[in-house]
Design brief:
The protein is α/β, with parallel strands linked by helices. The protein has a single domain (25-168), classed as Double Stranded RNA Binding Domain. It contains 5 helices and 7 strands; from the N terminus they run H-E-H-E-H-E-E-H-E-E-E-H. Strands 1, 2, 3, 4, 5, 6 and 7 form a 7-stranded mixed beta sheet that branches. Strand 2, helix 3 and strand 3 form a beta-alpha-beta unit. The longest helix has 20 residues, at 2-21. Residues 7-22 and 105-109 have low confidence and may be disordered.
Length: 169
């Protein structure tokens, strides 16, 4: 009986340690978890969005700020006036081009290189700051998306939602 209790104790310790090592980690950089969890309202600082991206950001906010949209899953309220928000979200984009050969041929061989089609690839970067102190609370890089800047905005917001859930557990 003594051996069985030792074996049982060993497995309990092992399972406990395994559970700790598999704890969810944030996908972004959380500078101040307490302050981030206290946020109740936010705005998107359109003055910091590059001019060519403003229409896509506005469309994203209009389309996704519903109960079924990604912003509807965020436990914060989106406000238009940043002076009334707890936090300010800044979005920046990195634009590059992915070259896809026409007809699926390998690049660099004959006419395939001449007929290749450059497709824009967008990566969205998000920074969340406290409105009053302007102290950074959170930052994250979204996944790269080919062809549609508006879709690239979804990734950092989804990561923020994930990280808020992780922090609140």
């Amino acid at each position: 009986m003594k051996i069985n209790l030792q074996v049982l104790a060993f497995f309990v310790i092992l399972v406990t340690l395994a559970g700790l090592s598999f704890a969810k980690k944030p996908l972004g950089e959380v500078a101040d978890p307490g302050a981030l969890l206290k946020v109740q309202s936010y705005c998107v600082d359109m003055d910091k969005v590059e001019i060519s991206a403003v229409p896509d950001v506005r469309k994203f906010l209009d389309k996704q700020n519903s109960p079924k949209g990604v912003l509807g899953k965020l436990p914060w309220k989106l406000v238009d006036n940043c002076a009334q928000a707890d936090a300010v979200v800044s979005l920046k984009f990195e634009n590059s081009f992915k070259v896809t050969p026409a007809g699926g041929s390998a690049l660099g061989t004959g006419t395939a290189a001449l007929n290749s089609v450059p497709e824009p690839t967008y990566t969205a970067f998000m920074l969340v700051t406290d409105r009053t102190s302007q102290k950074p609370l959170y930052k994250v890089t979204g996944e790269s998306v080919t062809g549609n800047r508006m879709r690239s905005i979804n990734s950092p917001f989804s990561k923020l939602i994930h990280d808020l859930k992780t922090l609140s557990q």
